[in-house]
Amino acid sequence: MPASIVWFRNDLRLADNPALIAGLGSGRPVIPVFVLDEETPGIRRHGAASRWWLHHSLRALDASLRLLGSRLILRRGAAEHVIGELARECDASAVYWSRAYDPGTRNRDARIKQTFEKRGIAADGLKANLLFEPWEVKTSSGGPYRVFSAFWRACRTMRAPAAPLPAPRTLPAPGLWPSSDDLAAWRLLPTAPDWAGGLGATWTPGEAAAITRLADFLDDALVHYRQGRDVPSTKATSRLSPHLAFGEISPRQIWRAAATRGHSAPSEKFLAELGWREFGYGLLFQSDDLAQRNFRPEFDGFPWLDGDEALEAWRQGRTGYPIVDAGMRELWTTGWMHNRVRMITASFLTKDLLIDWRIGERWFWDTLVDADPASNPMNWQWVAGCGADAAPYFRIFNPTLQGEKFDPNGDYVRRWVPELASLPAETIHRPWAADQAIPPEIYPAPIIDHAAARQRALQALRRVKGTG
Ligand code: FAD
Questions:
Q1: pLDDT digits (tens, 9 = 90+) for 100-119
Q2: Structural domain includes residue 227
Q3: Going by CA atoms, what residue is nearest to atom 52 of ligand 1?
């Protein structure tokens, strides 16, 4: 009997998965497959931390499918070829998947759809990972929004997202399963050295963990979200970002669960953060290369500096600015960094050190477990000043004042920069002013003077803006 292929990609979940429901609705055996496509040009390969997450998430998905009498087939190679072959092997009459929005994937998917349709096979990409499709949210002149507040106001006047779909209770299996790769043979996990201990201690990838995390957040932290979300030493935010990046939970599930807690100020603020994610996907959809091309072309001639030593100090968390170093070490250890500190560390790289935002974006792409093709470049461009609705060019974070404001007791710094743990709150963000001097081999002096760096950045930015 012909089968339906359900091609899992950035939607590693059973609940609220329209492609899975379409496969089930076909009444034929369902073959769930994941393709590791590292060959198609124009599609970004996972970074190292994301590969770690992907390994565990695929294992979790396979286990959940087995409880339904099914399993996950793994194949590797250019998806156009691999899915075509699989469809032949199992005499598929339909292929379903969840839509992606980056140009490389969109072009590949369009080619696949065309080829299948020529072969008389139904092929459809479905909306699964956004609340609103980029083409649904338009300005009065029919174009995309470039300012977040107007975008989000427009979203809030649209019909509320539909209720999430339930997970299937069973999946019809084929008489004979096609062959599958062995997950371990993909070598997604780091080995020599295995640097992923901190990731394993911090996260549980998979749909079940995503659902628990959402419930815990809504029960314990949502009420404090507005006041707490900028304080990196507390667990005041949802930490759902990696689960969302891999589609282990859908924004529609989050929206529904938060909205049913009532339209309180905290849940509005939280939903607006999901709105930023939607805004990013709108930009990804409009841009031909959001991770490479300045959204504002006047930045194309920006005088970025080469700063190998400074870059290395930033990556390792040894800049001499405690809040920057704490953030970079949190990132390295756990694969995640608090949003406020992401802004501070990105501002430090692009404005204090004048290092190209694309270099920072690539480092985050490689080290974040939530590395996202829309949110990462959008936020980097936002901080650097070259993005849509970007921070005003003259806003240059002072890392010392930011530390004192958002980590007033120094708890976050003490956790990630233990060599400063003995300093009192008054000097923990300015160790150079502490009574008890810290030897430079223990903790470095600032690699750059912020006041001078700020003037240098303002000069360069004014030139780009044509005001200096
Ligand atoms: P919560 O505060 O609980 O927010 C809920 C969800 O809303 C998040 O999970 C996320 O999906 C979304 N969200 C929140 N803030 C933003 C934002 N500023 N932009 C887009 N979506 C947002 N987020 C990523 O998911 N992947 C990235 O690769 C990424 N790179 C970033 C790089 C820089 C330089 C900066 C400044 C921010 C980046 N962000 C990225 C956005 C933000 O920092 C994270 O989404 C957030 O810290 C995740 O934590 P949370 O799930 O606890 O967020």
A1: 999 999 999 999 999 999 99
A2: yes
A3: 239
